[in-house]
Specification:
The chain has 433 residues and is an alpha/beta fold. It has 18 helices and 16 strands. The strands form 3 sheets. Strands 3, 5, 6, 7, 8, 15 and 16 form a 7-stranded mixed sheet that branches. The longest helix has 16 residues.
Length: 433
């Protein structure tokens, strides 16, 4: 397939707030493991605003965007049926020109120690799309390095039945963009929280550490077990930041709580913007509320503090998900949690000292879980949720939609301004519109 000599891109120029739509040379294969992808749809993410606002310093302009889905239009020499025999990741043997794909926001080799462990977000060869080191997907074409370890085919190779294939055909292109970052990240935050040892006593109605050692009956019999009260068994959670990732975290929490058959969980969702609080409440209502007769409330910061105090008698929440990536949000999470509480932070923090001191963490026995989602590893699990909740993730511009609008790439500068000021929700770019 011959590619055009030039294509349209969104570029950010230093020091900040300078978005331009330009015509530049179309990317080409530079390495045998590369793929060139024709962009179908690309996203504008809250993380893009860090560089846009000048918080992430950069010396040279770059093509923006780390969320995209598209079609493979060129492959390097590494892609052949014999690649599997060489021990390469399976996609090197199965990826073909014409395949629809979605990419995580970082490249990953799927061959190093961290990738083998499932920690693909910290791959030894990891590069961030939409940065000075790797051009992003707010464009008509993008070069994907290590594509056999990075990309995910839609539908996956293991989808064989006609029923499954039909289900995949009904996935909207717009919702696929959510797979690049926000849905796996929301799921990652919810999973880290609900799987944490300090949360298990409430989930399993057994005190610590018996909740961890269910197979060791001898030790459990000898433990000084005091029966938990109904109050002890109530799980109280806070979600701080109700942008798209926060909403994905809430949907993921509700799904996992349903699977765990959890009872009477209480969730307070906190954000400064009323529009975001309203959308979160409508999404939870559409899903059917918190499983097991639980409670869900949205709140401002001060309202959130009062709700937590009333719900828990001053104990605090069992855990908080912090998605803002700002010290104020982290301080709020610390203030809200009880002793032995858990803070899961997936917000992109900048190069500043976090506002937590060792004594405070020690005195509260705080568990602090921080950092980037390994999106490529989370793909299969996030895709299950994407398929199940197309009513939330597949719509555009509706009351419960995560995606607010799809616009031409020519509207990039205006869209960045509006998104930065909180005047619109998540924006997607159609580079061919």
């Amino acid at each position: 397939m011959s590619l055009p000599e030039t294509h349209k891109v969104v570029r950010l120029y230093p020091p900040s707030h300078d978005i331009r739509v330009e015509i530049v040379p179309t990317p080409k294969i530079e390495h045998a493991d590369d793929a060139i992808v024709r962009i179908i749809i690309a996203g504008l993410c809250g993380s893009d605003l860090h560089a846009y606002r000048g918080h992430d310093k950069f010396a040279n302009s770059f093509v923006c965007g780390h969320e995209f889905a598209g079609e493979v239009v060129a492959l390097g020499e590494s892609y052949s049926e014999t690649a599997a025999a060489l021990g390469r990741p399976p996609l090197y043997a199965t990826l073909k020109v014409g395949d629809k794909v979605v990419a995580p926001f970082t490249s990953s080799c799927s061959e190093c120690h961290f990738c083998r462990m499932g920690f693909t977000g910290r791959c030894e060869k990891c590069l961030l799309f939409g940065s000075q080191r790797l051009s992003g997907g707010q464009a008509q074409y993008v070069r994907v390095p290590l594509a056999g370890g990075t990309l995910f085919k839609i539908p996956p190779d293991n989808v064989k039945t006609e029923e499954d294939i039909t289900q995949w055909k009904h996935i909207s292109n717009a919702s696929l963009v959510l797979m690049a970052d926000i849905l796996p990240t929301g799921l990652f935050a919810a999973t880290q929280l609900l799987q944490h040892p300090n949360i298990l006593p409430a989930l399993k109605s057994k005190p610590f550490p018996v909740s961890l050692y269910e197979g060791n009956q001898k030790a459990a019999v000898g433990a000084n077990i005091i029966p938990l009260t109904d109050v002890d068994k109530q799980l109280t959670l806070a979600v701080i930041g109700l942008g798209p990732v926060g909403l994905c975290a809430i949907v993921s929490l509700l799904e996992q709580l349903e699977s765990n058959k959890s009872q009477s969980t209480r969730i307070v969702a906190i954000d400064l913007l009323e529009s975001r609080r309203t959308k979160a409440a409508e999404i939870v209502k559409k899903i059917g509320g918190v499983p097991g007769n639980g409670l869900f409330k949205t709140a401002t910061i001060d309202e959130g503090k009062k709700i937590v105090a009333e719900w828990t008698g001053g104990l605090g929440v069992n855990a908080a998900i912090e998605i803002v990536g700002h010290n104020d949000a982290l301080e709020l999470a610390f203030e809200l949690i009880r002793p032995f509480g858990v803070i899961t932070s997936v917000g992109v923090h900048q190069n500043h000292q976090v506002p937590l001191i060792g004594k405070g963490l020690y005195d509260k026995n705080v568990s602090l879980v921080f950092g980037r989602c390994p999106v490529r590893t989370m793909f299969p699990f996030a895709l299950e949720l994407l398929l199940k909740r197309q009513d939330i993730f597949g719509d555009v511009g509706q009351e419960t939609s995560l995606i607010d609008r799809v616009v031409s790439i020519d509207e990039a500068a205006e869209s960045y301004v509006m998104f930065d000021k909180g005047l619109c929700g998540k924006v997607l770019f159609d580079p061919w519109k």
